Amino acid sequence: MVEVNFVIGIDLGGTNVRVGLVDTHGGLMATNQCPIRAEEGVEAGLGRIFDLVEKTFAASGTARLAGIGVGATGPVDPRRGFINNPYTLPGWERVPVVARLQERFQVPVRLENDADAAALGEYWVGAGKGVSRLYAVTVGTGLGTAFVLEGEILRGLDGAHPEGGHHVLDPSGPPCYCGARGCWESLASGSAIARQAQLGVEKHPDSLLLSLASGDAGRIDTQIVAQAALRGDSLAKSVVEAAAEYLALGIANVVSFFTPEVLVLSGGVMNTPQLFLPAIQAALQKHTVVVPAARVRVLPAALGDFAGLIGAAYTVVKTL
Amino acid sequence: MVEVNFVIGIDLGGTNVRVGLVDTHGGLMATNQCPIRAEEGVEAGLGRIFDLVEKTFAASGTARLAGIGVGATGPVDPRRGFINNPYTLPGWERVPVVARLQERFQVPVRLENDADAAALGEYWVGAGKGVSRLYAVTVGTGLGTAFVLEGEILRGLDGAHPEGGHHVLDPSGPPCYCGARGCWESLASGSAIARQAQLGVEKHPDSLLLSLASGDAGRIDTQIVAQAALRGDSLAKSVVEAAAEYLALGIANVVSFFTPEVLVLSGGVMNTPQLFLPAIQAALQKHTVVVPAARVRVLPAALGDFAGLIGAAYTVVKTL
What we know:
The structure is a homodimer. Chain A is of the alpha/beta class. Chain A has helices at residues 42-58, 97-105, 114-125, 184-188, 190-203, 208-212, 222-230, 234-258, 277-286, 307-317; strands spanning 5-12, 16-23, 28-35, 64-72, 76-77, 82-83, 109-113, 133-139, 143-149, 152-153, 262-266, 297-300. In chain A, strand 2 (16-23) and strand 3 form a beta hairpin. In chain A, helix 3 packs across helix 10 (307-317). The longest helix of chain A has 25 residues, at 234-258. At the A-B interface, helix 8 of A face helix 8 of B.
């Protein structure tokens, strides 16, 4: 009888933790999720993760657990196995998640930044399957990037995660918490889109945006902006167009720096790719003189919300 | 008796070709150079290169020639061994320089883009010796970039050479031949500096710039601007400051995308690093929130004009 190996992939975000049972070919066999409630403390959070892992692995029957991969909202320290993220996981500083999972489950455990994990998932069994150079851009509340070169994550000095989302695109742009003005995230992320729309309705109170938000400008988010733009609202359309231009310019910059075979787009903002892809294609056509930008394939992510946990599982599978 | 191996490194620029005799530890034993005179035709140019190789190798005495590495002004096709550069080598389209050198000297021959070759030289025995991640920025007439990861050049799709020098820094900037507006090269290269100074003297004919150029604005180049700035000329200082800000911003962007251990600066503009390094250090201090930018070592190139031919030799040595 052949022993079947399964791996657990964990996607730990600022709001929810998702756990998946993944086979060694990248097949997702079972998933569970729950709120992480970081503010209730590290021990409570780890307890919730342990319970989810047990519940999810139970679906495997008699298989052997070969290891656990974690993709966590950064900053993380993959080499030391620490989560170090008081920004979106309040109180989670220097949390030795790798050691704690190893101790509990007695298997190899690996940790990655969530953007890197999602990129690895798309490389393994998603939109960039097996390509030599895969660049991944996640446009959600923030704007995250990852580069997978021959199946390996590109890291920076001391294992740092490079943050292409904070490269400066327009020095006359808005200030960002990163210290710069006009970085990509400040101009093209979901937060940037929502902020521009919220500012816009002050001058255009008749915009569809305000009625879709039940009259409360503070409730305008990316989904509402996208919905209003698709229905032809002129303010929403102009906000989307401006963000799409900056998104496209940032992608052209990625292409200048990396010239990857495939660039994968994911995240909530990309739920309506038709609003953004034309600007991206136009920008790439304009940047073909010195690099073959028109040959870069820009693709929506194939694994959706599961890219992170599948990629986290891959970090273990590739060591088997 | 131990047989000594030497390698020939060739640095083929738009104006001159330089040939060096390099030992297997990166020591430069002899060099020769001559004008390439590309416009006199490919055969005449190749003849000049062959003659220089023979003359230079003769200095080795009885050693064996182990191979030849060529770093050539791009575009080149390293995989097929073609120089394909009608831009700075008029008439040199699809020139099979690798095959021709192999045929003539009966040794292995390798070809690289000149920016990549120079970066490899700095990695092998220069300012970034042995570092895991070395980013090289050459600021001359243009602005070239190269990334050396664990001793290997980062290439793009189909072996393309990424062109970080053409990433957009300021969409309100000047148009560039690359198709973009406000790319790094258009704002911070030697050409950009000279152009800004030439425009500036129209309004400030009393500037020291004009007298250093014997009254001919068209003769103002980077060296004259640097000289005038060092002597306190206010127009020259403002041109240098603006270019230094953009140079620094582009370097901060490189750090956001790559976070290398070492960033090496070379090229004519960097002959006066004291005019540019303070702005670069200030920019990196401002970008330390999301990446450890302050820990990136920004260093002047150590091999000067010989980085290209030493790096070209390295492409062969590492295969021995």
